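Ticket #4471: structure export looks truncated?
Reporter: QA, pipeline team
Priority: medium

Steps to reproduce: submit the single chain below to the structure queue and open the exported record.
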Amino acid sequence: MPKAKTPRTTTNGKAKATTATPEVQLASTPAVAAPAATEVVKEVAKIEAVKNETAKQEAVKPEAKPTKRPEARKNVFPINLDEEIRRRAYELSEQRGFTPGHENEDWLIAEREILALYTERQSA
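Actual output as written to the record:
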């Protein structure tokens, strides 16, 4: 139990109120010196500095390396291949005078010509 506050006299004769604290030390526990407050503050500052440095490194994005453009693939056709075939089929039909009954034939001839044109370009 703590002691009650009692006035204490100092060397100059004035009373000073103090609180008495019990002085308890366990017999089985050896007295360990606590680190000084400044050492603890220094350790905390070191830990915070490491955390901040790690956060900065994670926040920095690596620089993008210039990428090489891949070479054109040999079997790639343009998106408008059907449109080119359609135009050529119309031209063939026009040369015939738009006579009915040859639509499929014109389409197949135009398809062969256009596909041959692109395969020749890509093999060269």
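Status: closed, not a bug. The export was complete when the record was re-opened. Leaving a note from the reviewer for reference: DSSP finds three helices and two strands in the chain.
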